[in-house]
Design brief:
- With about 230 residues, the protein is of the alpha/beta class.
- The chain has eight helices and six strands, in the order βαααααβαβαβαββ.
- A six-stranded parallel beta sheet has the order 3-2-1-4-5-6, with helices on both faces.
- Strand 2, helix 6 and strand 3 form a beta-alpha-beta unit.
- The radius of gyration is 18 Å and the shape is globular.
- Keywords: Hydrolase.
Length: about 230
């Protein structure tokens, strides 16, 4: 249910004690990887990047269903190999390593660092499906280490979001009640999972997509992260 004031603006919930951020597509622009793909495989950058991301998500969900855990770094490599094979491109270990390295240097969205800086007096937390071998370098390379109180990875419990066990792990690390968490993600499936678990949710709907038809409407919907400055 959307929280709107009588004047048509957002009514912020003052009970929030932790602002928890997804990473890929929320703070960092995953689609930017197409530039590196295009440099290495001219004419195929868009196709490779789209398949790469979709297979990455598909593979971690399939592995979760099959109880066959692998780190997101390994899954990202497998998804890349699939994307190259789908386009009949000759696999190259050198090119694969260059593209995987680019995942550790994804660009932030233009407003990400400024919003985090303005909210630095809050309890700011990363919670990602990214394994520590790709998540920690990404946060460090972007210069965000000092802005976050915690960087949480499902790698510690080997339960991918959107399973309840993954959100339970985050909640235990936070040491607060579920309704005191505001969870942010650009991924509709992640917002739905967090909402089902009991978190308050803010969908960062960068692409203007419709709400998922899962009877789990987000509490807040923003075009980008600047909407969070209402809690400043």
């Amino acid at each position: 249910m959307f929280a709107e004031s009588s004047k048509g603006g957002w009514r912020v919930d003052s009970s929030i004690k932790a602002f928890v951020f997804d990473v890929y597509g929320t703070l960092f622009d995953v689609t930017a990887i197409k530039r590196e793909c295009e440099e290495l495989y001219p004419g195929y950058g868009e196709k490779i990047s789209q398949t790469w991301r979709s297979k990455q998500v598909e593979y971690f969900m399939l592995r979760q269903l099959m109880s066959n855990y692998a780190t997101l770094y390994a899954i990202t490599h497998d998804a890349l190999k699939y994307a190259l094979n789908e386009n009949d491109l000759q696999p190259s270990k050198e090119n694969e390593q260059k593209l995987l390295a680019a995942y550790l240097h994804l660009p932030l969205y233009s407003e990400s660092k400024e919003v985090l800086t303005q909210l630095k007096d809050k309890n700011l937390v990363v919670f990602s499906n990214g394994s520590h071998d790709m998540l920690d370098p990404l946060v460090k390379n972007a210069g965000l280490e000092e802005l976050f109180d915690q960087v949480l990875s499902i790698d510690d419990v080997k339960e991918f979001k959107p399973t309840p066990a993954s959100y339970q792990y985050a909640l235990e690390q936070l040491g607060i009640e579920s309704h005191e968490v505001l969870f942010m993600s650009s991924n509709g499936w992640d917002v739905s999972g967090a909402k089902s678990f009991g978190f308050q949710t803010a969908w960062i709907n960068r692409k203007g997509m419709p709400v998922e038809e899962l009877d789990l409407e987000p509490d807040y919907v923003f075009d980008d992260l600047t909407g969070l400055l209402k809690w400043k």
